[in-house]
Amino acid sequence: MAERRMMLRDPGLQPERTRLAWSRTAFSLTLFGLLCFRGWCRDGNLFYGVSALISGVALTAMLAGWHQRHGKQFLSLSLWSVGALLLLNSLRQVLA
């Protein structure tokens, strides 16, 4: 009987949790893109500019609802490439 109760879940909450997770991701991506854009405007650093551009493209794809079909891989690729660009920029600044 206890096993049966453990298997029952409320399927109504899963879509809401998923929607909330995507909204948090969109908010974080927006802030990240804006900070990169600010860094590009202030310092003129190309890495910040490219990171802001990639973040903007990923956010646009996400807000357009593309993530429901096949945007999850695109979004993760975008975030990975932005992280790699910022890592390269940090290494460049440390080594300079």
What can you tell me about this protein's structure?
The structure is a single chain. The protein has four helices and no strands. The protein is mainly alpha-helical. It has a domain at 29-95. Helix 2 runs antiparallel to helix 3. The longest helix is centred in the N-terminal third of the chain and has 31 residues, at 13-43.
Low-confidence stretches: none
Cα-atom radius of gyration = 18 Å
How much of the residues is beta strand, in percent?
under 5%
Instruction: Give a quick account of the main beta sheet: strands, pairing sense, barrel closure.
Output: none
Percent of residues in helices comes to: over 70%
Round the mean pLDDT to the nearest integer and report it: 77
SSE string, helices as H and strands as E: HHHH
Q: If helices are DSSP runs of H or I spanning 4 or more residues, what is the number of helices?
A: 4
Give the terminus-to-terminus CA distance: 66 Å
Structural class category: mainly alpha
**Number of strand elements:** 0
* Overall morphology: elongated
